[in-house]
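Input record (Table S2, row 314):
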Amino acid sequence: MQLSLAPLQGFTDLVFRRAFAKYIGGIDYFYTPFLVMQNSGVLKSSHKREVEPFLERKDDLIPQFLGGSVEEFQFFEKYFSDLGYEKMNWNLGCPFPMVTRKTKGSGLLPHADKIKSILSDGYSSKIDLSIKMRLGLEDKQEIFPVLEILKDMNLTDIIIHPRLGNQMYKGNADRDFFKEVQDRFDFPIAYNGDIETQEDFLSLKADIPNLKDVMIGRGILRDYWLPHKIKGLDIPSAEEKKQILRKMYAEIFDTYSSFLSGDTQLLQKVKPFWEYFSSHFDNERKVFKGIKKSGGFKKYEQAVAFAFQQNVKE
Ligand SMILES: Cc1cc2nc3c(=O)[nH]c(=O)nc-3n(C[C@H](O)[C@H](O)[C@H](O)COP(=O)(O)O)c2cc1C
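Output record (flavin mononucleotide complex):
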């Protein structure tokens, strides 16, 4: 079984992934947050930065895109394969109304025929394709006609986050329904959703013993050593963890400083990082509140110093 880090827009960008791979590890492969094609047929520079510099091993990284047309599909297949990637991931899960209204992300799930025509007319099998999806936009039954189409498409992976698009992140991931889906199709489906602790993982494996791969997002951002715990790898002591987190944070901060201009931009980038990072420390709520409330740069640095005065959780 392989473990991947879920893409989280704003959190698991190149800077984070590189630092994670260097200081923590334990992940088998990474995904980029979704890239989109601008109307003009080009990418934003922040999106290009995700895939173009080749700073990661390309076989560890699967670039993801969001799109709802043959044109977008063809654009990304060519773009990624020209860059040398061997696999790409199509996002059929994004739940945001701004996206779903345009029949993209989970907004495509009620339209199995459209998914079929995009794949038949757009995909030329230049590189491998995997799909990350939810159960549907408004109704779980939407997944069945979609999987009927996908099962003949030679995909390398289907990853299901068992929620509906219109749920956003409310309620629980529906493991029972995931199982039902898996039982009806004889290809392996990877699981994603709400694995926050080693206990969650063990109960998932007990519920679904023949599970293929597992993708974890927020659980890993809140506990960087969750993959180690799941895989039975050695875990550093709390004091060692603190040293590692310090180095990792410094590298992430320095890298952002090297290409973001001005304190405002920099703070806009690093403050949200603490939403998950603060979970590593005792008094995590106080730590995060301090960061969030810190106005300018000086106060921010004081809040960071306060965080590193706390003990790191085992
Ligand atoms: C802030 C945020 C950003 C996300 N960005 C993406 C994205 O770019 N692409 C994607 O496929 N899923 C995205 N997701 C969904 C996650 O990849 C994942 O499916 C979801 O968080 C459930 O897994 P988890 O409970 O392990 O976090 C995002 C989720 C969050 C909370």
